[in-house]
Each structure stands twice: as C-alpha cells, then as structure tokens.
Amino acid sequence: MAAKGDVDMADATAKTQDPNDYADLLQTNHSDAFAFSDTEELALQLYDQLKELELQQSLLQAQQSGTSRTWRILPLVTENDAVSMIHGSLTSKLASTNKSLSVAEQNNIVANQKNRELAQTMLALAEEMKAQSVQDIEDPQLRQRVDAVDKELKDSRRRVRTLKGILSAMIVGSGINWAADEGLTELVMEDEDD
To answer: According to the model, what pLDDT value does residue 10 have?
Structure first.
C-alpha cells in the first residue's frame, strides 16, 4: 500500500540509443528516482543560489586583486617595452653594420685581385729589365754612369754584409741570450743574401 507522499516508481519506456550520443548515458531508466519534496527542492535551490553568490564574490575579489597586481606589473611591462625598442634599434644597426662589412669585404677582394694583377705586371716588367744588360745601352756616357752606380751598389752590399757579420759576432760574443729575443735572433740568423 502506498502512503501519502510516496511516489510510485514506474519504468520509463525504453528508447533506442544512438551510439554517438553520450547524453543518454546520464539518463536513468527510472526518471522519478530522484524525486524531491517541495521542502527539499527549496533547500536545493537556496543551496545553488548560495554557491552562485559565493562564486560571484570570488570572481569580484579576483578582479580587484588583479587590478592591484596590474599596477605592480605596469613598470615591468614599460621596461620590457623599452628594452624591446632598444633591442630592435640595435638589431637594425647590426644589420646595417653587417651589410657595410659585406660591401667592404667585397671591395677588399676586388682590390686584392687588382693588386695581384699589378704585381704580375711589375714582375713581368722587372724580368724585361733584367733581360737588358748594361751592354745594351748605346750611349757611352750613360753606360759609364750605370757601370759606376753598379760598382757602388756592389761595394755597398759588401760593406753591409761585413757590418752584419760584425754585429752578429758582437751579439753572440756578448753572452746575451739572443735566442730568446726575436729581434736579436733575426740579426744573428739573417741571411747574407738579404
């Protein structure tokens, strides 16, 4: 027998389920399994309203505390913006400098190539000059002057070799550690052909 306020439970009609519809999983076959009295429903509604008010209060507090954090972060954001602008400026200058360097390197390569060509031309001219001897000069006075200059050059070279030998002997004989000093080593070990 059913008492007053009891709810009769009856099975709901079975529905065909769509395999892709997950909402059916949340449904029960007994739709009245969670039937509440009026007092219980009122208590649940009041509880839901209380929770919603608490949530709204929490959101408002978060917004207010977020505003004070914004004021603390604002100088850092401004500094970050300034650093970003300086970084952009320096990056632009670096790119410009790299471009100038690249142009200078290209000009240097061209100048080195031109120097090589001029050096080859000079060597060719020097070889031509070597091929000419003093005997090829037809003017007798000019030939005598060239012979005199050539003799002076040979005498000068002989004196230089003698002085270099004396200087080397003085350095070695002095007892100075000439091998440790690059300049003295060059003086002592210098070739006589230089």
So the answer is: 53
- Give the residue ranges of DSSP H helices in 31-139: 38-131
pLDDT of amino acid 142: 81
Q: Is 185 helix (H, G, I), strand (E, B) or coil?
A: helix
Is residue 172 within 8 A of residue 178, CB to CB? The reply is yes
**What length is written for the chain?**
194
Encode 128-142: b = buried (16+ Cβ within 10 Å), e = exposed: eeeeeeeeeeeeeee
- Tell me how many helices (H) and strands (E) the chain has: 3, 0
Q: What is the DSSP secondary structure assignment for residue 134, as one 8-state letter?
A: G
- The two structure tokens encoding residue 19: 């395999």
Q: Which tens digit of pLDDT belongs to each residue from 34-58?
A: 677 888 889 989 999 999 999 889 8
pTM for the model stands at 0.34
Please state the φ and ψ torsions of residue 74, each to the nearest 5 degrees.
Answer: -55, -45
Sorted by where each begins, the domain ranges of the chain are: 138-194
The mean of the pLDDT values for the chain is 79
CB 30 within 8 A of CB 38: no
Question: What Cα–Cα distance (Å) separates residue 155 from each residue in 56, 71, 129, 194?
Answer: 110, 91, 22, 15
And the tokens for 83?
A: 């650093």
Quote the distance between the C-alpha of residue 189 and its chain's center.
Answer: 47
Q: Are 168 and 156 in contact (CB under 8 A)?
A: no
CA atoms of 68 and 185, how far apart (whole Å): 76
